Amino acid sequence: MARDLTGNAIKKQTFVQGAAIIAAAHIMIKFIGAAYKIPLDGLILKTEGMGIYGAAYTIYNWMFMISTAGLPVAVSKMVAESAALRNYADAKKIFSISRGLMFIIGLCGSAVLFFGASMFAEALAAPSAKYTIMTMAPSLFFVAMMSSYRGFFQGLSNMTPTAISEVIEALGKLVVGITLALAFIGYGVQWGAAGAIGGVTIGTVLGLIALLVYSAFARRKLPEFSRAALSKGKSCAVVRTGRQILKQLVYIAIPITLGVSVFTLTSLIDTAMVMNLLKGLGHVEAERLSMYGYLLRAITMFNMPPTIISAIAISVVPAIASALALGNKWLASETAKSALRITILISVPCAVGLCVLASPILRLLYHDSGYYQLLNIMGLAVAMVTIVQVGNAILQANGRVWTPVLNMLVGGFVKIFVNYTLVGNPAINIYGAPVGTFLCYFTVAVLNLIAIKRITGIKYEAADFLIRPLASGIVMGVATDLTYKFVNNALGNYIIAMGAAMVAAAGIYFAMLFLVRAVKKEDVLLLPKGKYIYAMLQRARLMK
């Protein structure tokens, strides 16, 4: 049995339970987020208000990543190392130092966002977003404070406080955000957007309160932090100075922050560029905010499939790392190949479904299918972003942490160039933005695949990685389109037609995968409960 640095047996079920807790919380948050965003968009703010909301949130997200992306990970890593050595005094000191650091960073970030709101709004060619940005500014402080607590408990392999605070934060955003948006929309769309953002800020306050309460009760019960444990000579033998801890926190956090910030900065530049290019084409603020609001709807749908694929990205890292630690490069490369194949097989139907059913999906969710062509194009980019997601994980598992960052940077430049070229064209305007997104992720995916081949030596068989999945996707897409049109014409009900088309799509794609033998034994075995699934497929004579 594997053991940690103290010689204690590693309880792997702890990690599984932690992952399950976070996964359950994220599923709940997705539903809460849908209950917040869909009525906010379709019934209260409409596309113009969501354009203001999205512009403000883009600024906030960039500042948030700079302020908090790397430090929680650094805290978690350092606390875990100290706790593994039973050096609990050092772990407590790491938490104290990080909390002070996050207090300063959060306070400064909030001040910059609040007092620079007018400047940021003008840079985005969205002056109406000024008060929305100001309303969101305090949340940066509360999120920073939450990050230190979350990182500390995650370092102790305790995911419960993170999950609880995230769910409470989401519920606060939902209840308060919708209430304030309804209360202020009568004063103008910009005030309605500010009210909705107010829900985000109050949500972060409630999330921090939940963490403080949990910490006050839970830490008293942790035997590791009892007076007896802290007073042991062995536990307190190597307690680093505040300067040493601060130096290591920054050393670990900076590359993580830079890596995460690449695309948030690109998105910020992208938003500013799109808004200013539309302004240059003669669109007044209300028009360009509305057009950007329609784009945000497509982006919201585009962001859903990667949540499914993230499970593969998470599981593939330890699988490859374990194989490499045992010196089994063949197993590592085969695991990488299977992960990529599974990713492609899952992402293709998601991409085709969003592309073919873009209009009825938007009509169902927002009662408005305007600019549905944005989702037509954005849907195709789903396949690319999921390959990027898993490709990044494979490269990181192989110790190439900077390669994904550099590749994403190249993709960011491609996105900016394409946007400048297409969005600035009056005949294309806003429709150029999703094209830029597709080409951006396509570029990164290709660069990642080249890097993976160079590092691992794996070979990409055209039949497995391209021809079979693509053939299955095309047949599924044609069947989906024909089914939707037939049922819609026969019954005159687009909701029933969409449901029938989705059922047909799932059945036909599943049948095609086994008909063209796109699924392999090693792919199935890589999945959770893989042996059980493979045995079932064998009994059904779908696999040998």
Task: Describe this entry's structure for a reader.
There is one protein chain. The protein has 544 residues and is mainly alpha-helical. It folds into 2 domains: 243 residues, no CATH class; 242 residues, no CATH class. The protein has 21 helices and no strands. Helix 3 runs antiparallel to helix 5, helix 10 crosses helix 11 and helix 13 runs parallel beside helix 18. The two termini are 34 Å apart. The N terminus is likely disordered.
Largest sheet descriptor: none
Q: What's the overall average pLDDT, rounded?
A: 80
Distance between the termini: 34 Å
Shape: globular
Count of the separate structural domains: 2
* Beta strands, count: 0
Taken as a percent bin, the fraction of beta residues is under 5%
Q: Low-confidence parts lasting 5 or more residues at pLDDT below 50?
A: 1-16, 228-236
How many whole angstroms does the radius of gyration measure? 25 Å
Q: Which H/E pattern describes the elements?
A: HHHHHHHHHHHHHHHHHHHHH
Helix and strand content put the structural class at mainly alpha
Q: Helical amount among residues, as a percent range? A: over 70%
Q: What is the count of DSSP helices, taking H or I runs of 4+ residues? A: 21
